[in-house]
Design a protein that fits this description.
Blueprint lengths: L3 E4 L11 E6 L4 E6 L1 H9 L8 H20 L14 E6 L4 H14 L3 H10 L3 H4 L5 E4 L8 H14 L7 E2 L3 E4 L5 H9 L30 H4 L32 H12 L1 E2 L10 E5 L4 H18 L20 E7 L2 E11 L3 E3 L15 E9 L8 H13 L7 E2 L5 H10 L4 E3 L1
Parallel strand pairs: 13-14, 14-15
Antiparallel strand pairs: 1-2, 2-3, 3-4, 5-7, 6-7, 8-11, 9-10, 10-11, 11-13, 12-15
Helix pairs in contact: 2-4, 3-4
The protein binds zinc ion.
Zinc ion binds next to helix 9.
Length: 432
């Protein structure tokens, strides 16, 4: 088949001329009626160029049947086309190209939709029969024509979209099927009938007749263990488990909890260190002038306390060109087991006031000595209460060349930060 364009109006050079284009693809041909210029010229006269409802209906039926047919024939991909009145696209098997062209010509020029209807009915597959209840062997060449593996894959897709479990097995020349309706799917359809108009349960009450042939046993551990089993019972619990998790994740994420599970694991075990980072020893100081891979790692870690404590901003934002900061912004990262499990971010400042750590007691007089200020400390959940925070603050003080009591703490201090400060510096701290 050659690709070609067929003009439907008298003057093929006129931009308003409607045309049918045929394009060849590996698995199918695309027959497309181009009404773009025609729609513009009709609507510029104030008339409507919309497809009549019967026309649009007939097109939709062909599209639905054709898509199924091409999947059944083995096409593994998906289809795209634009809806509306400007283009009418039919993906069809090569044997139906001429019929599709004639059907579109008749619909467009004569308002005759019988060609489209005939095309749709030739393409339509007996999916409802294939998915009837009961154990059956569908024979290649009799019940279907594609290869058993392709046919089974197609049927599985159709079953899934109708909420059915297929219980299928392909043999060399046939496919065994036993479509059943899981109790949960039945319940869903009965609870929300408006979402499944016209749905009828053909499966639940089905009993195989005496003549049913059963598929030969080919082994497999599960199969026999569920025969004559009683279904599990579903209940609606009077308990809401929709609370916010300690990691900061709230509610349900609509992906069976996968996003939360990933986040939670990182929160508990730490951020995995990228393989391409050479990191000898376990403690590293990252500055705003460090290589970008290190600064990105700090940024990633900073996302965990942000989520856990609902901060508006991350405590690290230096992701551009390396640049010096006046106040020497830097971050300490502690590694354990290939993960970053401890994080302290800090900068130097000279605005401090002493505090004796007694609740309600006022701050002392301002002091302008340059000191490192702890902006934030975060420890992966599994590593808390093991001295990680104290170690990080001690490392900060050592690097600065001052006793740990000289470190300044940013206010307000969290409850866990206060405990840490009391342990490291029981006689009082600097706050800023
Ligand atoms: Zn969580």
């Amino acid at each position: 088949m050659s690709e070609r364009t067929i003009h439907l109006d008298a003057d093929p050079r006129d931009w308003r001329c409607r045309k049918i284009r045929i394009r060849a693809y590996r698995w199918y041909a695309r027959v497309e009626l181009d009404r773009d210029g025609y729609v513009d010229s009709v609507s510029s006269r104030g008339d409507t160029a919309d497809l009549p409802a019967a026309y649009a209906d007939a097109v939709e039926k062909v599209q639905g049947a054709a898509v199924d047919r091409l999947w059944y024939d083995g096409y593994p991909g998906s289809f795209t086309w634009s809806n509306g009145s400007r283009w009418v696209t039919l993906p069809v098997p090569y044997t139906e190209v001429e019929a599709a062209v004639e059907a579109l010509r008749g619909a467009e020029l004569d308002h005759d939709y019988s060609g489209l209807a005939a095309l749709a009915s030739r393409l339509t597959l007996p999916v409802a029969d294939w998915l009837s209840p009961g154990e059956r062997e569908l024979l290649r060449g009799v019940d279907f024509h594609s290869t058993p593996a392709v046919f089974l894959r197609f049927l599985r897709g159709k079953a899934r979209s109708s909420g059915l479990r297929l219980n299928g097995r392909a043999t060399a020349g046939s496919v065994w099927v036993r479509p059943t309706l899981p109790a949960a799917e039945k319940q869903l359809r009965e609870m929300f009938p408006e979402q499944y108009p016209g749905w009828v349960d053909r499966w639940s009450g089905h009993a195989d007749s005496g003549e049913t042939r059963y598929r030969p046993w080919v082994g497999g551990r599960d199969q026999n263990l569920s025969q004559r089993a009683a279904p599990v019972q579903f209940r609606v619990p009077k308990l809401s488990l929709d609370h916010e998790c300690r990691c900061g994740f709230r509610g349900q994420s609509g992906d069976d909890g996968r996003a939360h599970a990933d986040h939670h694991a990182t929160w508990a075990l730490g951020v995995r260190v990228p393989k391409n980072l050479f990191w000898p020893g376990d403690l590293v100081v990252v500055t705003t002038q460090s290589p970008i891979a290190w600064r990105r790692l700090v940024y990633k870690v900073a996302g965990l306390p942000q989520r856990e404590n609902h901060y508006d901003f991350r405590s690290w934002s230096h992701l551009g060109e390396p640049e010096e900061t006046e106040d020497n912004v830097r971050a300490y990262l502690l590694k354990s087991n290939g993960h970053v499990v401890g994080y302290l971010t800090t900068h130097d400042t000279d605005h401090h006031r002493p505090w004796d750590l007694i609740d309600e007691s006022p701050l002392g007089d301002a002091d302008d000595t340059l000191r490192p200020r702890v902006d934030l400390i975060w420890v992966a959940d599994n590593y808390r209460r093991q001295g990680v925070g104290a170690m990080l603050v001690q490392a900060l003080a050592d690097d600065f060349g001052s006793p740990v009591a000289e470190v300044s703490w940013s206010t307000p201090i969290s409850q866990s930060g206060l405990q840490l400060a009391r342990r490291l510096s029981p006689d009082g701290i600097w706050v800023s």
